Here is the input.
Amino acid sequence: MENLFTEIENSAKYAAAPLAVRMRPRTLDEIAGQEDAVGKGSWLRTAIENDQLSSVILFGPAGTGKTSLAHVIASSTKAVFVEVSAVGGTVADLRREIDAAEKRLALSGLNTILFIDEIHRFNRSQQDALLHAVEDGIVVMVGATTENPFFEVNSALISRSRIVELQTLSDENIASLLQTALNDSRGLAGKYTLAADAESAITLLAGGDGRVALTTLELAAELIGKPVGKKKLAITEEAIRKAIPHRGISYDKNRDQHYDVISAFIKSMRGSDADAALYWLARMIEGGEDPKFIARRIFILAAEDIGNADPQALLIAEAAFKSAEVIGYPECRIILAQAAIYMALAPKSNAAYMGIDRAMAEVKKGAARKVPDHLRDRHRPGSEGYGEYKYPHSYPAGWVDQRYLPDGLEKGCFYNPGERGWEAFRKEATARDRTL
Here is the structure.
């Protein structure tokens, strides 16, 4: 039961809470930068305002307002709002809340909204425990995740929910959050000013994460101390840099960021953009990515996208992989960078990659083709009747016109050399040599 002492205790807890918690939006209009998700006329806003919310999964990067939106739902609905965190929660916790929700619905007709923070951290069996409760309407589930739910959440649970994606906050959104926090009584209550260069520094360091922006502002304010009297203290860029000396960029080695960044790295090398390749390489190195993983991708790209347009690329990729195995960070970053630049600037050909895939498809789906008799092994009785094999070195050009493909396949069916680099040179030289 609430009394004067619990009210004082809650007030003390709130005053000690981080700035990002104290500044959580109280209404949908206070949620920054999510017009598509909760703007006028959106499905989610309409459902919340009409108190007709169905199960929903909020998906977006850290600091975009997923938990804040859940708290707005809690304050806006007539349903009972309960919360389970997937970080420390168990199946027993879920079942306890579901049982309570079922009794609540049966006895008083009250609906329950069950908020599950970081739902992707629940394993499949834990997620399965939610299915019947969501399907039967015992609870309305609101899940929050930084990972793509189509990869990390059971398909059965997704089919029973609506996916709402929240976007990274823009610089303007971050600036608005900072100004509100500076002046609001829940925040710094007008006791500090924020220089323009300091605001820009926070925006850069935050990288679209509202929580990081507010935390940085709070740390800088604590660093310069509390104002005396009515005089305001200025939060400077220097204070920001001291509070957070390094920009924290999101990178999860096992999740979406991992795959997105390595994809951008590969496509930058394939697209011959050395600067972009170095940028994405730096993102992976800074994020602590395994150098052998990076080197493996360079190795594969050397054959898949460069191939015989520059056969040297494969050797450089091999050297980079070996360096990742035996040297490691920090020195192998230089070798990885050299290899990435080489791959980006090398002439490109995917002829080997396309050729082997065509050949594999033919082997799997085509006819069972016999080896031409003149190519068969001669170390067996009766091989005298196989026909003549022409030894290329016995001819002036080191080549002789002779069929090597089995019947039913013609030259050019698999390998089509590119028009760049060594591959193009050899195409021209071969044609010249064979006319001599």
Remarks:
- DSSP finds 20 helices and seven strands in the chain.
- The domain at 34-165 is CATH 3.40.50.300 (Rossmann fold).
- Confidence is low (pLDDT under 50) at residues 4-8.
- The two ends are 101 Å apart (CA to CA).
